[in-house]
Amino acid sequence: MGTPLAAAIESLSQALEKPPRSKSFETPHPNKIQMRFHSNIGRREFLASQAALICSAFADNSNDLDHGLRIIDCHTHFYDPSRPQGVPWPAKSSSLYRTVLPAEFKALPKFRPVHGTVIVEASQWIEDNDWLIDLAKSDPFIVGIVGRLPVGDSDFKSLIRKYSMHPIYKGIRASAISLKGLIAAGDFSDLQSLADNDRSLDINGDLESFNVASVIATRVPSLRIVVNHVGNVAIDESGPPEPWRAAVLRASEAPNVFCKISALVESASRNGRKAPHSLQFYAPFLDVVWNAFGDHRVIYGSNWPASEASSSYETLQRIAMEYAFSKGKIATQRFCSLNAKDAYKWNE
């Protein structure tokens, strides 16, 4: 899917290739208004001036979309391997193995300013939930924490009650695999406890994330569920696979399921491939998700710093924002923060 600006320029380019008429000629204006020009005006000069006007118009439109726009990145990771106990993730052999704190994230070049973040805990250590809570106490940039607790364990209910006492603690993330075990056992009590404490559930995995979300949403309709990373689908030139498309549509039928548009560049850079930087490459996949979940249940996230091996933050943010811009100002505002506020009830 091309941007409106690209379509306008393409229209002008096609006009340049056509032979001029002897007296006058017509070329379609991007807004479908027919404009008539006379041969005494230099044709190329005129088209060049129109291209400049189009660029100016679209720049004004982008500025209008930006006005009052608040962006919350709802998928970042922070950790400190220099702690005496170290960290369980990332591995020491990884390029990510370094101290990663909000100050580094705030300093990154960005396509548009980011005003806050919801952290997603990657560590399975229970005490790392406390580490993130302490981190947030001194930094209002952190508007929410999605922690990690052993759902299905005997002490889960007491743990979620404990952590729900902290307003910054918005919910937990669990793997689709672990949740499939609960579903197979017919045990939804921990998930109901999560809902009773007004906390959300993030689900991470492949397309099974959507299938799991669909089942849980039906059995625990009061639980807010967020599928991470558009189900980690492999994004490539072959387009959206049908099983993934079907899973997306199935999950979207439940009104309490949201989808986080995140980790796009990672999904496009598997098996040694280089992630493309053009929105057009990702648009068919984004179309499936956005058309299924609508303007009110899509959420912006980056997956930084895990994303940094695939692209700069500025690039991954631009891809997501350009797509949102094509949906209009209200939809963009919802995508950038308001939908996440519904899902996570993050702090003002």
How much beta, percentage-wise?
5-15%
User: Helical proportion?
Assistant: 40-55%
What structural class do helix, strand and pairing data support?
alpha/beta
Largest sheet, described in full? 8 strands, parallel
Number of helical regions: 13
Distance between the termini: 35 Å
H/E series, N to C? HEEHEHEHEHEHHEHEHEHHEHH
Q: Name the average pLDDT.
A: 87
Describe the strand arrangement of the main beta sheet, using strand numbers. 3-4-5-6-7-8-9-10
Question: Segments where pLDDT lies below 50 for 5+ residues?
Answer: 1-13, 15-41, 51-60
Please compute the radius of gyration using only Cα atoms: 23 Å
Query: How many strands in all?
Result: 10
What sort of overall outline do the alpha carbons produce when their principal axes are compared? globular
Account of the 3D structure:
- The protein is α/β, with parallel strands linked by helices.
- 44% of the residues lie in helices and 14% in strands.
- The chain contains 13 helices and ten strands.
- Strands 3-4-5-6-7-8-9-10 form an eight-stranded parallel β-sheet.
- α6 (176-185) packs across α8.
- It is globular and about 45 Å long.
- The model is unreliable at 1-13, 15-41 and 51-60 (pLDDT under 50).
Helix and strand arrangement:
Layout: H1 4-17, E1 24-28, E2 34-38, H2 43-66, E3 72-76, H3 102-107, E4 116-120, H4 127-137, E5 142-147, H5 156-163, E6 169-175, H6 176-185, H7 189-196, E7 200-204, H8 208-219, E8 225-227, H9 242-252, E9 257-261, H10 264-267, H11 279-293, E10 298-300, H12 313-325, H13 329-344
Parallel strand pairs: 3-4, 4-5, 5-6, 6-7, 7-8, 8-9, 9-10
Antiparallel strand pairs: 1-2
